[in-house]
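Ticket #4471: structure export looks truncated?
Reporter: QA, pipeline team
Priority: medium

Steps to reproduce: submit the single chain below to the structure queue and open the exported record.
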Amino acid sequence: MAVLGLSAAACSSSGSSTTPVQGGALSPTPLATSLESAGATWATIPMGNLDQPLNTFWQLFELPQGATGWSNQVQSTGVATNGGIVLASSPGGTVVAAVRPSNMLTYSPAAVTDDAGRSWSTSLVDAGLADHPDTLALGSDDAFALAAGGDGGEQLLEGGAALGDWHRVVDQQALADTAAGRACGVVSLVAVADVSGSAVVGAACSTPGTVGVLSDGPGGWRLAGPRLPASLARRPAEVLGLWPVDGGLDTLVAVSGGTGQEADLVEASSAGAGQWTVSSPSAIPDGDAMASFGPTASGGVFVLATGPRGDLLETGSGAGTGWTVLPAPPGGTQTVAFPAGGPAYAMAGDGTVLKVWSLAAGWSLIQTTDVPIQFGSSS
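Actual output as written to the record:
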């Protein structure tokens, strides 16, 4: 395996759609998200009766390149999706939608496409994925996954590119017992990425000022994350997501809140040569909640937060240089998507109706689609 060139510095779940931002582990983090792949943009949101876990069904939506409307693809998963859907894509354009465990389901079935959704095959992660949106990563020849916690906490698994032959690499407790894990004070494992065939894990750390990016290599695990600005260095931090970009990494980090705020968010980017660029902090006000986050087509990251004063939508550049605040999306928005070369989209499930808005001078409703949902099918 190549070494990442970064500097050291059967449970029932409905997959939460909003979670208060706080220090330490965010459990669960919001699963609603979107991503871009070769030929299509993908998004997943919960629909149905969201106050009833057995009647909440996560839907998979696709916007093919050049299309003007989103289509429902959840039937490709072949199982009930009450536990939520985790998305991942490979550098070659393969997309996986894996279903989290719920009810009697103890593993994560997966639907796989390598032709932008024109055809699908099935696979699985034989230990159920953990309750975070970035727990599955695809490389060219391998895959990594974070499985739901056992006695040793969340487990890092490695498998083949076809999502088979899984074996455990390390669990949370074993990683916490390494020198890198002790320096971090590992609280939980939250995100995973494949960089040049090596696993990189994002963790929540209890050690103030430490960003839990941990890289695996021949010499063992090491801390490979950025340094936080001095203003944040006395607070614990959690890596929310990891996204490989051009041989390096882009990451979203939540730092426990100061006075009058829930958290500070920073985006950090590495070009792969050990040098990180860290954005200025973006404060999430006290009482607000993270509703969605994920990668953008330009190599950056988006964050959607909701609160009593309205929604906040902002994007990071992918270079760790700062944040751009966009017009607040319509109320009830569950995630947003940023296709390459196209407008931004806001998406919401209103019972069994999908609503989609596009952003030009402002947000305009462009699509309402009835989504067939079989209520009672999970009881």
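Status: closed, not a bug. The export was complete when the record was re-opened. Leaving a note from the reviewer for reference: The first strand starts at residue 19 and ends at 20.
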